């Protein structure tokens, strides 16, 4: 089994064998990133059923259209393209799907209804968590406030309250974005 010594620039094998040169860390990272980027390529298909439901998948199926997508930008390409966008006006691609305003309004109404229902449920869960916290913070028979069991129980109850408070805030923030 080979053991490696790693510093910021090189990896040296530590074994009884004699190696003539170290393996540069940058070369290993480059090779790993190239191998990972090859695995990310996939063909994407768009299928629209008879009710108008759109499904995107990586599996071909009868009636689906294969999408010709541009490759993802690398970090270097992304930086240079953002500089280009600053100097030119960007427009929506011609093949970008368009939705009429009444359809979008209906979608927004459904989204608002779902979020409002989730908010009401989350507010009930928060009230229940507050009640459980108040009940759980009371000391039980032969229990002290510095005992591990009391501290653990109270910490879990406080975490539950915090989770529901965060969810309520997130849902209100999401509702505020709907037109």
Write the layout of secondary structure elements.
Blueprint lengths: L2 E4 L3 E5 L8 E2 H15 L4 E5 L5 E4 L7 E3 L7 H13 L13 H36 L11 H29 L3
Going by helix content, strand content and strand pairing, the class is: alpha+beta
Distance between the termini: 62 Å
CATH architectural label of the largest domain: Up-down Bundle
Low confidence ranges: none
Main beta sheet: 3 strands, antiparallel
Q: So what's the CATH class of the largest domain?
A: Mainly Alpha
Give the DSSP E fraction (strand runs of 2 or more residues).
Answer: 5-15%
CATH topology of the largest domain: Methane Monooxygenase Hydroxylase, Chain G, domain 1
3D structure, described in words:
With 179 residues, the chain is an alpha+beta fold. The chain folds into 3 domains: 7-39, no CATH class; 44-87, no CATH class; 101-176, Methane Monooxygenase Hydroxylase, Chain G, domain 1, CATH 1.20.58. The protein has helices spanning 25-39, 75-87, 101-136, 148-176; strands spanning 3-6, 10-14, 23-24, 44-48, 54-57, 65-67. Strands 1-2-3 form a 3-stranded antiparallel β-sheet. The chain has a 3-stranded antiparallel β-sheet with strand order 5-4-6, with no helix packed on it. Helix 3 packs antiparallel against helix 4 (148-176). The mean pLDDT is 79.
């Amino acid at each position: 089994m080979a053991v490696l010594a790693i510093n910021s620039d090189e990896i040296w094998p530590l074994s009884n064998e004699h190696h003539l040169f170290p393996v540069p860390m940058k070369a290993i990272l480059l090779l790993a990133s190239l191998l990972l980027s090859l695995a990310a390529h996939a063909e994407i298909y768009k299928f629209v059923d008879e009710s108008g439901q759109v499904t995107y998948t990586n599996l071909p199926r009868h009636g689906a259209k294969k999408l010709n997508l541009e490759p993802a930008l690398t970090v270097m390409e992304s930086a240079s393209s953002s500089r280009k966008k600053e100097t030119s006006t960007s427009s929506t691609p011609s093949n970008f799907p368009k939705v009429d305003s009444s359809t979008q309004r209906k979608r927004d109404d459904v989204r608002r209804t779902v979020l409002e229902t989730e908010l009401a449920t989350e507010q009930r869960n928060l009230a229940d968590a507050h009640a459980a916290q108040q009940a759980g913070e009371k000391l039980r028979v032969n229990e002290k406030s510095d005992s591990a069991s009391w501290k653990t129980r109270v910490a879990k109850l406080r975490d539950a309250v915090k989770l529901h408070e965060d969810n309520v805030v997130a849902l209100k923030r999401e509702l505020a974005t709907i037109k």
